Amino acid sequence: MGDWTGKLVCDDYAGYKALFNRGIIEVGCMAHARRKLHDLYADHRSEIAEEGLRYFAALYEIEREGRELKLDADGRRLLRQQRSKPAAEALRQWLTRQRGQVPDGSATRKAIDYSLGRWAALTRYLDDGDLPIDNNHIENRIRPVALGRSNWLFAGSLRAGQRAANIMSVIQSAKLNGHDPYRYLKDILERLPTQPASRLEELLPRQWQPSSAIAREIAA
């Protein structure tokens, strides 16, 4: 990540800790905290987990309302301060009460401790309308790679693996820029042989303008 500094939305993976020691601000992912209780309920039909999920649902319902209202960052911050902050405090108090009633080392205790141990990071989004409540947006983008990695475990060579990574990065970048990956790749592969080296950046997803033939396909 070079010299980048800012706010990083992430889970509790230990590999991030060094980043926080050099000034990057940790922002917890509420979806990961919720998932601990969801898994507990799905596997064991835990009544405690079911109750806890309702607290998380209240926080996500407020975020849904904010999206429907198409609030800007200032509007989201105000909404969160007025409604999400009290809902988050109710969740914290509930977690604290339940923690004292479940045995050490139990799955329920571990699920609760995950949230309480990262509470400052998990609630940092409440004070910043530019921050999301979780990092699901990014996780959904990398999910195809995570699901397919067993199929790509043996790429043949290091160079082949690097090439595959480059291709997948280009495809995902095309999607993020609103392009149809097939039409994008078809166009740039046809244009590459005659594209001047000094103008290769024009073919990157963020700068690409479709050729007339591709534009007609899109319009059709």
Structure description:
By secondary structure, this protein is mostly helical. The chain is elongated. It has ten helices and two strands, in the order βαβααααααααα. It has two domains: 7-136; 154-219, no CATH class. The chain starts with 6 loop residues before the first strand and ends with a helix. Helix content is 61%, strand content 4%. The protein has a two-stranded parallel ribbon.
Question: What is this entry, summarized?
Answer:
This protein has 220 residues and is mainly α.
Largest sheet: 2 strands, parallel
Q: Tell me the strand order in the biggest sheet.
A: 1-2
Content of β-strand = under 5%
In whole angstroms, the N-to-C terminal distance is 42 Å
Q: Which spans have pLDDT < 50 for at least 5 consecutive residues?
A: none
Bulk shape: elongated
How many β-strand stretches?
A: 2
SSE pattern, N- to C-terminal: EHEHHHHHHHHH
**Rg:** 22 Å
**Total domains:** 2
Number of helical runs?
10
Mean pLDDT value: 93
Structural class: mainly alpha
Entry keywords:
220 residues; 2 domains; 2 strands; elongated; mainly alpha
Itemize the secondary structure elements and their pairings:
Elements: E1 7-10, H1 17-20, E2 25-28, H2 30-44, H3 47-68, H4 73-99, H5 107-117, H6 119-122, H7 136-148, H8 158-176, H9 181-191, H10 212-219
Parallel strand pairs: 1-2
Helix pairs in contact: 2-3, 2-5, 3-4, 4-5
